Amino acid sequence: MVGAALTVLPDVAGAQTPEQRYSDWHRLDFRSQEYDFRRSRIMDLLRSSGGGMLLVPSSDGQTHGGTFRQLEDFWYYTGLEIPNSMLVLDADRDRSILFLPARDPRFENPGRRNDFPGRPLGEDYQLRSIAGINEYADREELEGFLSERVGAGVIIRVNAGVQGPMPTPEIPMIGSLGPVEALITRLRAMYPDASFENAFTETARLRMVKSPTEIRRMRVAAEATSVAIRAAASEIRAGMDERTIQGIFESACRGYGAQSIPFTPIVKSGPNSHWPWRILAAHYDRRNRRLENGDLVILDVGCEVDGYISDVGRTFPVGGSFSAVQREKLLVSTRAADAIIAAVRPGVTLRELTAVAYEAIPDDEEPYMQTPTYFGHHIGLSSGDPALLDVPLEEGMVFTVEPWYYNHDLQVSVFVEDVILVTENGAEVLTAQLGRSPEELEAMIR
Known about the structure:
Blueprint: H1 22-25, H2 32-48, E1 53-57, H3 72-78, E2 86-90, E3 95-100, H4 125-131, E4 135-138, H5 142-151, E5 156-158, H6 179-190, E6 196-198, H7 200-207, H8 212-233, H9 242-256, E7 266-269, H10 277-280, E8 296-301, E9 304-305, E10 308-309, E11 312-317, H11 324-343, H12 350-360, E12 398-401, E13 405-407, E14 412-414, E15 418-422, E16 427-429, H13 438-445
Parallel strand pairs: 1-5, 3-4, 5-6
Antiparallel strand pairs: 1-2, 2-3, 7-8, 8-11, 9-10, 12-15, 13-14, 15-16
Helix pairs in contact: 8-9, 11-12
């Protein structure tokens, strides 16, 4: 407006929020000695298979509206929740080096300095003291470091996420590369003559065996999931929709102390129960059917507590009672699970457990069972922890047993899934507190 007085904002410099420090917000999930052991152990495994240096990227720090979760390998080896960083485990030199940004970009916003007061990372010596890594360097020095080491003939290792030779990812016309695929693509472009090796096998050998502290976390996650399934089951009745059951489960997880839900809870009933999650989730509003008396409703769900997850499944009869056919097919699944669990012990392989499962399943039911896997998967930091099917089981391994049964002919599908810990002489069912017999399942919803 012409002639209007200029408004002068007061000087608020004195009210500026002080810089935030990493240690004010975060503590390591485990003692630093556990991370030291993990880094030392993976370098031993790398040396035994040819040496080189393993590159472990951290997340870009973008949360996309959700709570930040670090990339699993970086979290596993460091316990740190810092963005845009690279851990280098140089097995040839027996050194760990962390390249990290000078400051945390998530704490910066020039237009809102009081709300985003900044957080130093590279020069934060308290952060360095809790991490216990051998060396620290600015992220801007990473490329020069890699060029020097590659020039010296050092093998570059990356965990590609699957077994086999190091892949050559193609940049898609539509979509985007994941962080590890992007790293591999960039490395191949920068160093076309370098020697690349996939570190999946070494990573899996280490992460498959859980430490006592990890197992304690997984017991809590299994208990939380079992409690939340009971809470959801108690509300199952005709007229309830699948999404409401999902919400009850998630609320119970949070009430138990879960920071996150590790995967979208799978709740499917009636005709929906015959289809895999990927098909049901192909449409925005597909998974919200109303339950009807006589339906079966399947829960395939998990809670995440302090970074570790559980993955558990149960089948419930809407109305309170299984029909004779539903009960019969549920027992096909649970008897297969019982046979697998009874065969678990150190020295047995997952492929051998597959053969045990097939022996326990009647020939005429095999076409309706999940095949050709061994009916389960390793879990830990995720519902798909790295695993090697032909490596004999060891004490401390944790995996699921989940013999699916999909019978489209009879329109009957049932599912049970339990979490199994390999012990010195056999197996412990971490989800044993959650019954799965027909009578126990019926009792949970009455």
